[in-house]
Amino acid sequence: MGKLVYGDAGTEIEFDDRVLTHLQIVIGAKLRRRESFFFSWKDDPSVGDGRSSIWLDSSVPLYFRFSGSRVPTINRDWITAMTASANSGAGLTFIEEPGEPSTPLPKSTA
C-alpha cells in the first residue's frame, strides 16, 4: 500500500500503488493548471466506515509514497472517468477501476 501524505500535519491516506499512480496523474494535471478541488473517498471500515474529503490546492504540500518500485500500466478509461469527476462541482471522487475487481478502501491517519 502506498500513501498520499497531505498537508503540513502529514495526514496519511493509504491507497494501493495502482490506485495511487492513477490519482497522481489526475491530481497532478489539475494542480498544474492551478485548479483547486475536493478529493473524496469512502473510508475503510477499520477507520470508521464513513467518508472523507480533503481540499487540494497547489499551496498544500502533497507527497505520493509508493510501496513498490514498478510503475503500473495506466488505464486511460479510469483516468478519463476520474478526470471527469475532478472537473465536476463535487470534485474528485474515488471510483474503482472500470472492469476490475474491487480495490481496498483508503485508510487515513493523522
What secondary-structure arrangement, pairings included, does this model have?
Blueprint lengths: L1 E5 L4 E5 L1 H16 L4 E6 L8 E6 L5 E4 L10 H11 L5 E2 L13 E3 L1
Parallel strand pairs: 3-6
Antiparallel strand pairs: 1-2, 1-5, 2-7, 3-4
Note the main attributes of this structure:
110 residues, alpha+beta, four-stranded antiparallel beta sheet, 2 helices, 7 strands
State the major sheet.
4 strands, antiparallel
Number of domains: 1
Order of helices and strands: EEHEEEHEE
Structural class computed from helices and strand pairing: alpha+beta
Helix amount, in percent?
Answer: 10-25%
Could you walk me through the main structural features you see in this protein, from its secondary elements to its overall organization?
The chain has 110 residues and is α+β, with helices and mostly antiparallel strands. It has one domain (2-109). The chain has two helices and seven strands; from the N terminus they run E-E-H-E-E-E-H-E-E. It has helices spanning 17-32, 76-86; strands at residues 2-6, 11-15, 37-42, 51-56, 62-65, 92-93, 107-109. The strands form two sheets. Strands 5-1-2-7 form a four-stranded antiparallel beta sheet. Strands 4-3-6 form a three-stranded mixed beta sheet. Helix 1 (17-32) crosses helix 2. The longest helix has 16 residues, at 17-32. It is globular and about 30 Å long. It starts with a strand and ends with a strand. The mean pLDDT is 88.
